[in-house]
Amino acid sequence: MSTISSPIFWRDARMPYVELRKISDARQVCYAPHSHTHWSLGAITAGKSTFCYRDATHQISG
Questions:
Q1: Handedness of CA 30, 9, 19, 61 (dihedral sign)
Q2: On the chain, which terminus has fewer CB atoms closer than 10 Å, C or N?
Q3: What is the pLDDT of residues 34-60, one digit of tens each?
Q4: What is the bridge-based pairing of β-strands 39-41 and 15-22?
Q5: What pTM did the predictor assign?
């Protein structure tokens, strides 16, 4: 059973280096610094999120 703060991932074998992630409420989700060997796409549809890239912190909103 998933909750609104649990991500759902979509992957397709025809595009092995791409994944899509959906999460309805990410206010309690925080990922440790990491990287991906594939593209990982997301969209903020409501609210805001903060992410770090290299030495900068960025805030994005929907």
A1: negative
A2: N
A3: 888 887 777 777 788 888 888 899 988
A4: parallel
A5: 0.53
Give pLDDT tens digits for 3-25: 677 788 889 999 988 888 888 77
CA gap 41, 9 in Å, rounded: 10
> Is 17:38 a contact under the CB 8 Å cutoff?
yes
Cβ atoms within 10 Å of 11's Cβ, excluding its own: 13
Q: Which amino acid is at 10?
A: W
Rounded Cα–Cα distance for residues 38 and 11 (Å): 11
Instruction: Provide the sign of the torsion angle of the four alpha carbons 44, 10, 34, 36, taken in this order.
Output: negative
Q: How far is CA 60 from the centre of its chain?
A: 12
